[in-house]
């Protein structure tokens, strides 16, 4: 059985180096003939670069068995590596970057089949400065640019209980239903974050408030920094090692 696990992991990893999309499809196909426990072992045999390649190229409109089975720590690590796979048009365009990061985080978080796993992922992301900022990108304009929408009642709902300026939710499901927030709306994901891990929502707001700059400039600066940090993490011997002085340019 160990031999089967190792052969399967090697096959997927080799394919991912050539064609990540095919590796993703191959993993989904193999999943039909293996148990979840076996698949978890296959995932554990893969390095973080391979996992990032596969998840970055997966069709995010479809469920991913790999994403469901990865640990919160593995998900955090692929989030930190994913900027290496940004296309130039994404890195250089604030709107594109917000949409891309929103789609990727929605794909990773909403696919989970229970609230406890979603909470664990969010809290794990918040422990790493790079991962926390990646998670924050979809909400930069929403938080620093003010609430959007023409309905005053909806804007009132988004007022933060502390400063009455930034976005906030008191009840995720009630707000989604009352204001018809779809899963492709960043406000819906922010509502889910507040419901699952309110401390993470506060960390997002605190990080962005402390930047004190134009939101488009912030995105540009952090996009460059995230790519640099991803490269540094990819080069260290220990793929899970911490990178010192993360985001020192904000000091």
UniProtKB/TrEMBL annotation:
Highest taxon, organism lineage: Bacteria
Identification of the protein by name: Uncharacterized protein
Organism field: Shewanella frigidimarina
Lineage: Bacteria, Pseudomonadati, Pseudomonadota, Gammaproteobacteria, Alteromonadales
């Amino acid at each position: 059985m160990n031999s089967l696990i190792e052969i399967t992991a090697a096959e997927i990893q080799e394919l991912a180096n050539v064609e990540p999309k095919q590796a993703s499809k191959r993993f989904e196909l193999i999943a039909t003939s293996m148990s979840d426990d076996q698949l978890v072992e296959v995932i554990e045999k893969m390095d973080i670069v391979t996992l990032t390649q596969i998840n970055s190229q997966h069709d995010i409109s479809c469920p991913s068995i790999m994403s469901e089975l990865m640990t919160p720590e593995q998900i955090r690590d692929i989030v930190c590596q994913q900027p290496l796979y940004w296309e130039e048009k994404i890195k250089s365009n604030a709107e594109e970057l917000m949409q891309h990061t929103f789609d990727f985080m929605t794909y990773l978080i909403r696919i989970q089949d229970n609230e406890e796993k979603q909470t664990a992922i969010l809290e794990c992301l918040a422990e790493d400065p790079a991962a926390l900022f990646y998670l924050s990108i979809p909400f930069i304009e929403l938080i620093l640019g003010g609430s959007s929408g023409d309905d005053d009642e909806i804007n009132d709902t988004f007022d933060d209980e502390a400063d009455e300026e930034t976005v906030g939710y008191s009840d995720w499901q009630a707000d989604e239903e009352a204001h018809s927030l779809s899963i492709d709306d960043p406000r819906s994901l922010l509502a889910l974050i507040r419901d699952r891990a309110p401390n993470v929502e506060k960390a997002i707001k605190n990080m962005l408030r402390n930047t004190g700059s134009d939101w488009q400039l912030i995105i540009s600066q952090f996009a460059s920094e995230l790519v640099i940090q991803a490269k540094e993490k990819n080069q260290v011997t220990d793929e899970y090692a911490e990178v010192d002085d993360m985001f020192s340019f904000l000091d």
